[in-house]
Amino acid sequence: MDTTTTTNQGKPGDTVQINGTALATTTRVNFGSASVTPTGVTATQVTFVVPSTAPCSGQVSVSVTSSTGAISNALPFFVIASPTTTGLSVTCVSAATGGSVTLFGTNFLSGTQVGLGTVGNVAVTPTQPSQVTFTAPANPGQVGTVSTQPVTITAGGVSPSGTTLIDYCLAPAITSVLPTSGTTGDQITVNGTGFVGVDTVTFTDSAAATATAVFTPVSYTQLVATVPGGLATGAGSITVHTCGGNSNAQTFTVT
Q1: H-helix or E-strand containing 198?
Q2: pLDDT, tens digit, for every residue of 21-33?
Q3: Residue 228 belongs to what H/E stretch?
Q4: Cα–Cα distance, 254 to 122 (Å, whole number)
Q5: Helix (H, G, I), strand (E, B), or coil: what is residue 17?
Q6: Among the four 9, 29, 58, 236, which has the fewest Cβ within 10 Å?
Q7: Three-point CA angle 31, 34, 35, nearest 5°
């Protein structure tokens, strides 16, 4: 008897082929300590499904037993532990550019690709069992401000979908600021779209110097920023930054 699969390895639920001779009277497959009923038997091939009672990982011996009780020689089969994901190094990336992401979890070493929902797959070759770093591709067709995608890894099996998620974000856009001018300490209302997870509001003065403003989010379309000190008077601008990138520069005059 000769036990063969494409890689001589698999996980619970996988169908395995046993190739050999004089297999026509096979009544059961001996998978380690488990007795498994074949799903198919011919003179040269027996198929069976790796049982749910298989060990989480490691090597087991596989043999067959005939209707007369004869047991074949045994050959090794390697049970691959299914991967799991536990988290990411970032919670979002820009829809326009994608970005570097580290995925954390278990049983990654045999990994071949990371899936990002409808965005696509990325080929990977993990060097550690608990993490892999990859470049998430851009999502150029995105319409909504935020598109949440499940992150999975294929490593001898596919990790459960929905347990680890990443947000793709479009860049914010400013439509107006009110008032359009002000001095240090004044509160300015900034209106626009895509104000999701705003991390920075920047004022640029007439000399092209920049200063970061204290701000308060109001909604995904509005925030209130305080004009920072140290800016030169004259025509400048305001920009808003999120995970999706920088907004357009909206004109603002420092008085």
Answers
A1: none
A2: 999 999 999 999 9
A3: none
A4: 47
A5: strand
A6: 58
A7: 85
Quickly count: other Cβ atoms within 10 Å of residue 59's Cβ: 11
Task: Provide the CA 106 distance to its chain's centre, in angstroms.
Answer: 14
**Residues 110 and 155: beta-carbon distance below 8 Å:** yes
Instruction: Please give the share of the chain, as a percent, with pLDDT higher than 90.
Output: 85
Identify which of 196, 174, 194 has the alpha carbon closest to the alpha carbon of residue 91.
196
- Calculate ∠ Cα 119-129-154, nearest 5°: 35
> What's the rounded Cα separation, in Å, for the pair 239 and 74?
69
d(CA 18, CA 77): 11
Cis bond leading into 179, ω under 30°?
yes
Residue from 250, 190, 243 nearest 214 by CA: 190
- Please give the Cα distance from 48 to 173 (Å, whole number): 58
The four Cα atoms 159, 161, 165, 171 give a dihedral, to 10 degrees, of 120
Residue with tokens 């047991």: 71
Q: Are 13 and 51 in contact (CB under 8 A)?
A: no
Element (H, E) at 254: strand 250-254
Bridge partners of residue 191, in order along the sequence: 176, 222
Residue indicated by tokens 């919670």: 91
pLDDT, residue 7, reads: 56
Q: Which residues face 115 on adjacent strands?
A: 121, 152
Backbone angles phi, psi at 171, to 5 degrees: -65, 145
Using an 8 Å Cβ cutoff, are 148 and 110 in contact? no
